TrEMBL record:
<dbReference type="InterPro" id="IPR041846">
    <property type="entry name" value="ENL_dom"/>
</dbReference>
<dbReference type="InterPro" id="IPR003245">
    <property type="entry name" value="Phytocyanin_dom"/>
</dbReference>
<keyword id="KW-0472">Membrane</keyword>
<feature type="domain" description="Phytocyanin">
    <location>
        <begin position="26"/>
        <end position="131"/>
    </location>
</feature>
<keyword id="KW-0325">Glycoprotein</keyword>
<dbReference type="InterPro" id="IPR008972">
    <property type="entry name" value="Cupredoxin"/>
</dbReference>
<keyword id="KW-0336">GPI-anchor</keyword>
<comment type="similarity">
    <text>Belongs to the early nodulin-like (ENODL) family.</text>
</comment>
<keyword id="KW-1015">Disulfide bond</keyword>
<dbReference type="Pfam" id="PF02298">
    <property type="entry name" value="Cu_bind_like"/>
</dbReference>
<feature type="signal peptide">
    <location>
        <begin position="1"/>
        <end position="25"/>
    </location>
</feature>
<protein>
    <submittedName>
        <fullName>BLUE COPPER PROTEIN</fullName>
    </submittedName>
</protein>
<keyword id="KW-1003">Cell membrane</keyword>
<keyword id="KW-0449">Lipoprotein</keyword>
<dbReference type="GO" id="GO:0005886">
    <property type="term" value="C:plasma membrane"/>
</dbReference>
<keyword id="KW-0732">Signal</keyword>
<dbReference type="GO" id="GO:0098552">
    <property type="term" value="C:side of membrane"/>
</dbReference>
């Protein structure tokens, strides 16, 4: 009987860690490095949208930019302003050099540089935030072309989903031993 109780406690702890791990929002450094908010050296190798295609963003995550606030800014804009690099009337404007934007809904978010001519040279970012119902699948659906003209989002596995699946399998294994 004592073995069963220990196994039940172990399984409960494993399941709790699984659900806590899946629900944690994270701060994501744009481009994965502090000097990423700049004009890319080439469209193919240094584009922030290439980085965003390989990342998965969930509701509650935050994007973090590190840049020289005296020389640049981050503008959150509409899809149309993103496509045309229109810096007038942004949704939000950030100039502090240490910008944090909460991704509070699912769908696309669009950002461009506020520095003259930078957006036209490729300093812009579009991210797609997954909805809560897609949180556990590990695969991101691509938005329809009518909804989003930004970079394609390739499906990949989510590390938290893999870790959660491993923890569940471990819990089942522990229960099977007792």
């Amino acid at each position: 009987m004592a073995c069963f109780q220990r196994a039940a406690v172990a399984c409960t702890l494993v399941l709790m860690s699984f659900f806590v791990g899946l629900s944690q929002a994270k701060d994501v450094l744009v481009g994965g490095k502090t000097d990423a908010w700049k004009i890319p050296s080439s469209e193919s190798s240094d584009s922030l949208n290439k980085w965003a295609e390989e990342a998965r963003f969930l509701v509650g995550d935050s994007l973090v930019w590190k840049y020289d606030g005296q020389k640049d800014s981050v503008l959150q804009v509409t899809k149309e302003s993103y496509a045309t690099c229109n810096t007038t009337n942004p949704i939000e404007e950030y100039k502090d050099g240490n910008t944090k934007v909460n991704l509070d809904r699912s769908g696309p978010f669009y950002f461009i540089s506020g520095a003259q001519g930078h957006c036209e040279k490729g300093q812009k970012l579009a991210v797609v935030v997954l909805s809560q119902k897609h949180r556990y699948t590990g695969i991101s659906p691509s938005p329809s072309p009518a909804e989003f003209d930004g970079p394609a989002v390739a499906p990949t596995s989510s590390a938290s989903t893999l870790r959660g699946g491993f923890l569940v399998a471990l819990g089942v294994l522990i229960l099977g031993l007792f």
